[in-house]
């Protein structure tokens, strides 16, 4: 009985040690690139559906060269604007800054006033005078006067 408890303890300790070694390490990777990115390519933004904005394309570093990542439509965030991906030069290296939402300091909420209906709406009158809500039409019920 003592032998099986010792084996269980040993297996449990090995399992705990293995699980901590297999846990992923969370770290931010920064790549220093000594070659400046090419000039941005011009892309025509398509017509945007309401609630969407255009995120322009950018140069991304892939292995040993830059590749162009095409622009895309993204869902708009009310009160924010999209700051596109860009490269910053620091010393002799270039660092890519990913695109992100920034609060739009010029954003203002527009309040639209709804027109109120009068409390006593008269459906029996219209602009053509008294009647039953229908405009007077010649020729109804007989001969037209000429």
Task: Provide an overview of this structure.
There is one protein chain. This protein is of the alpha+beta class and 146 residues long. It has a domain at 31-130. Helices cover 14% and strands 27% of the residues. The protein has 1 helix and 10 strands, in the order αββββββββββ. Strands 1-4 form a two-stranded antiparallel sheet. Strands 2-3 form a two-stranded antiparallel ribbon. A two-stranded antiparallel sheet has the order 5-8. β9 and β10 form a beta hairpin. It is flat.
Overall average residue pLDDT = 77
**Largest pleated sheet:** 2 strands, antiparallel
Q: Tell me the β content.
A: 25-35%
Number of helices: 1
Order of helices and strands: HEEEEEEEEEE
- Can you count the beta strands? 10
Strand arrangement in the largest pleated sheet: 1-4
Could you give a short description of this structure?
With 146 residues, the chain is of the alpha+beta class.
State the main characteristics.
flat; 1 helix; alpha+beta; two-stranded antiparallel sheet; 146 residues; 14% helix
Secondary structure elements and their pairing?
Blueprint: H1 2-22, E1 52-55, E2 58-62, E3 65-69, E4 72-75, E5 80-83, E6 86-90, E7 93-97, E8 100-103, E9 125-126, E10 129-130
